[in-house]
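Per your request, structure below.
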């Protein structure tokens, strides 16, 4: 089978933040953490900052593409926190990030250059033997590329340039598939098949290509629905919803500081401390990625104790209402994905295309990011960056 690495040649390793305090489930927490660092001076600021070999408050780096953050040394920073941006944190979790290059060890600027309203990021999940769950996930926000199990994945943008231009597919692949299936195949159709048919393997994700055009069309239709659910209305404007009677609601208010999460399969009820949410389908509760239950991990990231005195300990005093709303949407997404995952298991590829002459392997140039020269980027200490 062709590898995803061959069909979508350009990919990057995950982001490496270097300091966990720059990401949080809510934007207000990030602003409070920023203020705490900026108010500190000298050695106290260095300690809160969390110095690494890649970043200290005394280094100067270029601006992240598309962001208007400072490029002077952070040790002199006195201004307000830059507006946090939404990012995908592992599969099915969305959090907030301070988009300041001075705070992130390895931010992958090449990804920020192509992150816009047209982009779809395909994230290859790290390999975990005998684990259930999808081999790839997709997101509209920039993903950090880490799987729920902590294994490094691979981030593959669908487009190599802003504006949905230059598909990140092996040169000649779309025309070859079009000639085999008897109609013009575009990038959206190709990524839909990849999402529906991708299979995990220890050597990297593989994607079987069917010889039967009807199988291709059924897989593409399934993949489009899977993408629509995971994008959560980012491109269409329509948020995922379950039919009436199946939509989860808060039956008992979530307490100010829920410490535990539980599930009652008979009542289809999710418990957050004394709070109750139902109906929650068992398939949503049991949804795993990389061997990790998604709902449990989502809750743990918002409730696990942090080291006293650290910036990670700066967090909301009480459970925010927005987290409950996000949890209700996540339950909806997982319930819909579990249904689609059953259809995914029933997808029979049948006879496969085993050779793509002149297409695979892709040329080395296809594995490098494209040049993006249509906007200025500020370099260290306010200089213009030359790309």
């Amino acid at each position: 089978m062709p590898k995803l690495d061959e069909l979508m040649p350009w990919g990057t390793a995950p982001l490496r933040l270097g300091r966990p305090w720059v990401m949080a489930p809510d934007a207000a927490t990030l602003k409070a953490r920023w203020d705490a660092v900026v108010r500190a001076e000298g050695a106290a600021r260095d300690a809160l900052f969390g110095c690494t070999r890649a970043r200290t408050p005394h280094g100067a780096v270029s601006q992240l593409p598309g962001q208007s953050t400072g490029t002077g040394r952070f040790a002199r920073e006195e201004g307000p926190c830059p507006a946090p941006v939404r990012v995908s944190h592992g599969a099915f979790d969305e959090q907030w990030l301070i988009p300041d290059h001075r705070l992130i060890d390895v931010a992958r600027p090449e990804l920020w250059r192509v992150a816009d309203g047209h982009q779809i990021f395909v994230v290859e999940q790290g390999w975990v033997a005998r684990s259930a769950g999808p081999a790839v996930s997709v997101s509209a926000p920039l993903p950090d590329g880490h799987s729920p199990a902590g294994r490094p994945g691979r981030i593959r943008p669908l487009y190599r340039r802003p504006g949905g231009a230059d598909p990140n597919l092996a040169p000649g692949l779309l025309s070859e598939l079009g000639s085999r299936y008897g109609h013009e195949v575009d990038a959206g159709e190709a990524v839909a098949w990849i999402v529906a048919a991708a299979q995990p393997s220890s050597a990297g994700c593989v994607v079987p290509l069917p010889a039967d055009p009807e199988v291709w069309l059924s897989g593409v239709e399934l993949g489009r629905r899977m993408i629509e659910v995971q994008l959560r209305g980012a491109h269409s404007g329509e948020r995922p919803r379950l039919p009436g009677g199946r939509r989860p609601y808060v039956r008992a208010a979530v307490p100010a500081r829920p410490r535990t999460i539980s599930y009652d399969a008979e009542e289809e009820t999710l418990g957050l401390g004394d709070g109750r949410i139902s109906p929650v389908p068992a398939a949503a509760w049991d949804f795993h990625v990389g061997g990790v239950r998604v709902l449990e991990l989502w809750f743990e990231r918002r409730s696990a104790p942090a080291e006293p005195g650290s910036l990670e300990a700066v967090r909301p005093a009480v459970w925010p209402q927005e987290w409950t709303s996000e949890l209700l949407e996540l339950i909806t997404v997982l319930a819909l994905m579990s249904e689609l995952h059953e259809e995914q298991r029933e997808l029979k590829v049948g006879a496969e295309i085993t050779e793509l002459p002149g297409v695979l392997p892709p040329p080395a140039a296809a594995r490098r990011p494209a040049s993006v020269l249509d906007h200025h980027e500020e370099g260290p200490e306010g200089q213009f960056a030359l790309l």
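The first strand starts at residue 23 and ends at 24.

Regards,
D.
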